[in-house]
């Protein structure tokens, strides 16, 4: 069992004293530990404790005394401070799909000697040996590790060494497998999961012969498969009832909207205790894909844990907060307790969000005259020319920038990387004139003008700060202050347009999509419904304030257009912002993009 402590002293002194080291003569740390703070025990020596701060304020780590003058300063507690306060009612309740209880097996600890019987599904293109090594590494220091009885279920599709591009796995072969094949390349907007049906049939047979399990852990495609199993079980699939009680999902994504599996996305938030864990520095998928997946788990059942170990299950160490949060979850699962998510920031920022949403049907009749307000990119192409120069130099040096995949042999890379960036550069450099040229009698084209000062705003992180090769800095706006900055710009633009009415549609280009999003929200706040919001290659990592609550755009139609060869993650922040129609589509060139926006703006 993990050891947790709660600070009970120091109420009259602003908390309790913390020192750097064990000795009472070691330097005091400048900040005190707040009363009510929850600590994880790292080391104990007599009446002194070295801790890791799990909840509350104060130094993240240090030494404290158990007692002073016979009075307790800290006391043992059973978990991370018990249950957080009851969560606030979800806003927009009518947009929450009806969620069914998960069909979990009765009882617990189904393994030998009352151990928790655990199922592991690995990542793509590895062997059972690799999966076992990952389990050993992840749970090595976990207090309950001896209570976990693992079974590894390997994928039914055999692939050669290097299917996933990692030839260093040769010593751990030769039996490398996958649960499905990603075609035509990973992160494609219409990515197909070939072989999924065969895997599902094999899994049902396996569960029938070996179930039930307490928990199921999946990494990457193993987790993606398990989420679909949980969805099918909830929908009543008779072969998947009573399969497992809880889920642990590492680097797990949902299928893209445009993929063949898009129609099989989870129908309502799942009511199964689940850890969703990933690293934003993951090199295999844009981390927005990992951010989206927890929204398909009911907020009362999900524990979101962001770690820092890249594209692999985390190595859980006692001096990490993530260790104690995992331990708390597993403690609750072993005891059979009702699990209540912590109030950690990883949970708090998405506490009021879910997917999918029940959407209203847009039945408004288009007026005879429409206006399209074009919001260009305020910083133009930004650093894209630098990125292009690097790619062109690599190509000139003879480096192959793309590699076509061969099904069940090796994964492919996105095609046309240089052409794709050139198209994105065109989008970010475009003005309202590309729409003005296609204007028709029933649709006027207007635009916003930026001042020189506004064009100097640095919206994105630097190239050096981009956490993953799957992303560009154009994809990321993470400074929370930028939400208010965009709202201030939006108010100014709307004040300059005195005749704003509900006949106004908006289109934002590149970074301008973020500004257009702010304009749409400002219109809704003023009681005006935009005729539609088109976002072209928009940034996808936004300040959390933008999506703190769902349906900020009410039932305004939102349409995302991305270039065909992009590997964008899902635009879930825009998706949760509307209860109205929401669509995603692709374009091959500027002309097709303009045509799709103009056709939509005329008919919306």
Automatic annotation (TrEMBL):
**Gene3D superfamilies, A to Z:** alpha/beta hydrolase
Record's signal peptide? none
Which Gene Ontology cellular-component terms appear in the entry?
A: cytoplasm; nucleus
The record's annotation in PANTHER family points to:
ESTERASE OVCA2 (PTHR48070:SF6)
Q: Known Pfam families for this protein?
A: FSH1
Q: Where is this region: Disordered?
A: 78-103
Q: InterPro entries attached here?
A: AB_hydrolase_fold, FSH-like_dom, LovG
User: Which organism is the protein's source?
Assistant: Symbiodinium pilosum (Dinoflagellate)
Q: What is this protein called?
A: Serine hydrolase domain-containing protein
- Does the record's keyword annotation contain Hydrolase? yes
Q: Which residues form the Serine hydrolase domain?
A: 114-320
Question: Carries keyword Hydrolase?
Answer: yes
Q: Which UniProt keywords apply?
A: Hydrolase
Q: Give the superkingdom in one word.
A: Eukaryota
Molecular function in Gene Ontology: hydrolase activity
């Amino acid at each position: 069992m993990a050891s947790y402590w709660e600070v009970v002293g120091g109420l009259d002194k602003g908390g309790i004293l913390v020192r750097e080291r064990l000795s009472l003569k070691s330097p005091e740390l400048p900040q005190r530990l707040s009363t009510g703070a929850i600590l994880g025990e790292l080391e104990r020596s007599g009446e002194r404790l070295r801790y890791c701060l799990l909840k509350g304020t104060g130094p993240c780590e240090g030494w404290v005394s158990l007692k002073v003058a016979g009075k307790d300063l800290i006391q043992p507690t059973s978990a991370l401070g018990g249950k957080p306060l009851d969560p606030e009612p979800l806003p927009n309740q009518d947009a929450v799909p009806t969620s069914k209880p998960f069909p979990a097996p009765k009882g617990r600890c189904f393994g030998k000697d009352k151990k928790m019987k655990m199922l592991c599904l690995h990542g793509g293109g590895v062997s059972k040996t690799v999966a076992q090594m990952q389990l050993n590494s992840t749970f090595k220091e976990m207090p309950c590790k001896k209570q976990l009885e693992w079974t590894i279920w390997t994928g039914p599709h055999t692939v050669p060494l290097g299917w996933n591009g990692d030839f260093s796995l040769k010593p751990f072969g030769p039996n490398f497998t996958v649960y499905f094949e990603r075609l035509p390349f990973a992160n494609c907007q219409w990515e197909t999961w070939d072989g999924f049906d065969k895997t599902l049939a094999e899994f049902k047979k396996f569960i029938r012969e070996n179930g039930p399990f307490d928990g199921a852990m999946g990494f990457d495609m193993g987790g993606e498969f398990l989420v679909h199993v949980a969805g099918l079980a909830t929908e009543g699939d008779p072969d998947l009832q009573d399969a497992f009680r809880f889920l642990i999902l590492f680097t797990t994504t949902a299928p893209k909207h445009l993929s063949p599996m898009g129609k099989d996305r989870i129908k309502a938030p799942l009511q199964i205790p689940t850890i969703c864990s990933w690293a934003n520095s993951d090199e295999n998928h844009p981390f927005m894909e990992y951010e989206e997946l927890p929204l398909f788990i009911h907020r009362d059942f999900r524990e979101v844990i962001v770690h820092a170990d890249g594209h692999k299950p985390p190595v859980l160490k006692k001096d990490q907060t993530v260790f104690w949060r995992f331990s708390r979850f597993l403690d609750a699962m072993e005891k059979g307790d009702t699990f209540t998510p912590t109030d950690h920031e990883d949970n708090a920022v998405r506490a009021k969000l879910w997917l999918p949403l029940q959407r209203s049907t847009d039945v408004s009749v288009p007026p005879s005259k429409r206006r399209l307000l074009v919001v260009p990119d305020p910083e133009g192409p930004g650093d894209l020319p630098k990125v292009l120069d690097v790619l062109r130099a690599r190509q000139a040096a003879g480096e192959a920038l793309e590699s076509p995949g061969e099904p069940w042999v090796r994964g492919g890379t996105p095609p046309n990387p240089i052409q794709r960036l050139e198209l994105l550069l065109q989008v970010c450099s475009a003005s309202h004139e590309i729409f003005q040229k296609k204007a028709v009698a029933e649709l006027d084209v207007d635009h916003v003008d930026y001042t020189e000062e506004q064009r100097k705003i640095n919206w994105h992180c630097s190239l050096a700060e981009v956490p993953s090769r799957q992303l560009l800095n154009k994809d990321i706006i993470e400074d929370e202050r930028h939400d208010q900055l965009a709202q201030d710009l939006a108010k100014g633009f709307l004040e300059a347009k005195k005749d704003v009415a509900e006949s106004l549609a908006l289109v934002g280009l590149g970074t301008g999509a973020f500004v257009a999003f702010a304009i749409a929200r400002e219109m809704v706040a003023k009681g005006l419904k935009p005729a539609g919001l088109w976002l072209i290659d928009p940034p996808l990592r936004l300040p959390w304030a933008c999506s703190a609550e769902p349906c900020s755009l009410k039932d305004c139609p939102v349409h995302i257009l991305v270039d065909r060869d992009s590997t964008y993650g899902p635009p879930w922040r825009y998706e949760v912002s509307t209860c109205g129609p929401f669509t995603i589509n692709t374009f091959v060139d500027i002309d097709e993009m303009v045509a799709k926006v103009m056709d939509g703006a005329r008919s919306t």
